[in-house]
């Protein structure tokens, strides 16, 4: 129990500190790196809760794709962050008010949370000692298989649409033609000449 409490406070503390550094770091690249650190610690908390599927999804999807994409975008774009931060101080009072409202709502939620009578939460013993990933897989591919397939189809259409919208036909650009490459013979590009020793071609 002591080890679990120590691990929880360690992950939670690093998560809070890294989240603060995400919004307070002056260098945007450092902000993205602290965001990746926050994702790793959040996945550690999910593992402690027994939700290893969510932990792996958080690492694979967010760290492996989203955060790395943010990092490359920030490093490739020449954005003048100094000019963007000039007028941000006037929004600080509004941000403090909104943050206070959200904090009040969270405290109220966790203080007065009550479970309705007769409601029982599922435990691992109630589902034949299945792991979190197995239970999610059974529900996802049986009861919600149609919604799962539709979500995949929507993401596929969105990916194709993004490619079509960003595809530009530029003139005077050399393009690769696979058919012409396969049709080409060695005699088309090579010329064999017999050279007498100690003479030129």
Please describe what this structure looks like.
The chain is mostly helical. The chain contains nine helices and no strands. The longest helix has 25 residues, at 52-76. The mean pLDDT is 80.
Which helices and strands, and how do they pair?
Layout: H1 2-24, H2 28-48, H3 52-76, H4 81-84, H5 92-111, H6 132-140, H7 145-166, H8 178-183, H9 186-189
Helix pairs in contact: 1-2, 2-3
Q: What is the CATH architecture annotation of the domain at 1-79?
A: Up-down Bundle
Uncertain regions spanning at least 5 consecutive residues: none
Tally of helical segments: 9
CATH fold annotation of the domain at 1-79: Four Helix Bundle (Hemerythrin (Met), subunit A)
- For the termini, the CA-CA separation is 84 Å
Mean of residue pLDDT?
80
The main sheet comes to: none
- How much helix is in the residues? 55-70%
The Rg value, from CA coordinates, equals 28 Å
Q: Count the E strands.
A: 0
- Helix and strand content put the structural class at mainly alpha
Principal-axis shape equals elongated
